[in-house]
Amino acid sequence: MNNKICFIDIDGVCNSKQWYRSTEYYSNLFKDPDIDPYIVDLINQFTNETGVKLVISSSWKLDDYCLERLDRVGLENIIGRTPNLIFTVPYDKFCKGLEIKAYLMVHNVDKYLILDDESDAVLDEQRENFLLIDARVGITDENIEYIKEYFK
């Protein structure tokens, strides 16, 4: 049981438009080009220091190899994925916040933060537990500092 959780999106959070234009992107093709290793290091440092665990809320979770890919790039402290509810509600009513709410209903979580690059990824009741990440650059040092303060 862990009481502190970050629900994490992948595209726009663990990579960025800047990453896809970088020379490092082209040298990282054999590891996994869709994940910025600098961001992985930032997240790992934060989760290892604080004990916060990660739950994948990204559409990546639908890929059977999602956790294997994230493991291959070294992303640590992942304890699961949100349930897949995309086909259980009408398309125009769906948002990731519904899946996060379902996760929270069956897990003992005292404090959580949602990291996503889309502001419509959360329910209104989750806004105070949401940090919008700029998809142009992905998660930054400043974001990590905010997250550390949030979980103090």
On the 0 to 100 scale, the average pLDDT is 89
Cα-atom Rg, whole angstroms? 15 Å
The percent range for helix content is 25-40%
Beta content comes to 5-15%
Please characterize this protein's 3D structure.
It is a single chain. The protein has 152 residues and is of the alpha/beta class. The protein has one domain: HAD superfamily/HAD-like (Rossmann fold), CATH 3.40.50.1000. The protein has six helices and five strands. The protein has helices spanning 17-20, 23-27, 37-50, 66-72, 96-106, 141-150, and strands at residues 4-8, 53-56, 78-81, 111-116, 130-132. Strands 3-2-1-4-5 form a five-stranded parallel beta sheet, with helices on one face. Helix 4 links the parallel strand 2 (53-56) and strand 3 (78-81). The two termini are 18 Å apart.
Essential attributes:
single chain, 152 residues, alpha/beta, Rossmann fold, five-stranded parallel sheet, 6 helices, 5 strands, 34% helix, 14% strand
Quick structural summary:
The protein is 34% helix and 14% strand. With 152 residues, it is of the alpha/beta class. The protein has one domain (4-150): 3-Layer(aba) Sandwich (Rossmann fold).
